Amino acid sequence: MIPVFAPTADTTTAHDLVAAAQRLYHTAHHDTGASALFDSLAALDQSILDTLGDDESAATAFWLNVHGALVERARATGQHARRIAGTRRTAADITHDILRADRWRHGLGYLPDPFPSPFARRYRLDKLDERVHFATRIARHAPGLAVTFTAANVDAQLDALTDTYLDHAADYNPDAQVARAPRVCLWYRGDFGGASGIRSLLAAHDVIPADASPRLRYVTPPTLTLPDHDPAPARSDPQ
């Protein structure tokens, strides 16, 4: 059985937390048992979440799952904030304070948050992975692509979601030497390493040739109209 969020740190590992967050995301999609899991997440002692600090992959998977669960909860109930270890957080807080390694949400990706909360200072990821932008946007705008993340596979999962998003939202006109990139790359261009980093991302995901240096245009992607489906059932993450 997938554990709920455990009350003590004595036997709780980072992988236990990821497994519980998987279950939270899955149940929030259905609103079946999600309230009890959110309550157990709220009741966690903050020291338990400290176990994520030694495993960046587990931390990334955990916070992506919590973000997705908060998005699903807001979609179902209109309730955007829930308590995490006693502190009220929203999905946007998780994105900017934690997944973006506490970069300022108004700094175009170039500036750290000038006034980080104690929660953000304690739990923010050590490094920013720009692919989290596509995972969080899919969670918000394309629930039909919902996945629950595991520590063992989070890198491959982020790659797959980025491929899917860019297949839909980016393209290249070799005659005009223009590449269209999703507008999120403009909003947080520092996260992507500026224009050169965005071109590298597009090349890595086969949108443009590796030796191309096109002009960039930023567009709002059309709405993803994929059929909804159940997020992958939560299962224990391999140790």
TrEMBL record:
Which residue numbers delimit the DUF547 domain? 57-166
What InterPro entries has UniProt attached to this entry?
Answer: DUF547 (IPR006869)
- Bias-annotated ranges (Basic and acidic residues): 227-239
* Segments for region (Disordered): 219-239
The molecule here is called DUF547 family protein
What is the native source organism of this protein?
A: Halobacterium salinarum (strain ATCC 700922 / JCM 11081 / NRC-1)
- Which lineage? Archaea, Methanobacteriati, Methanobacteriota, Stenosarchaea group, Halobacteria
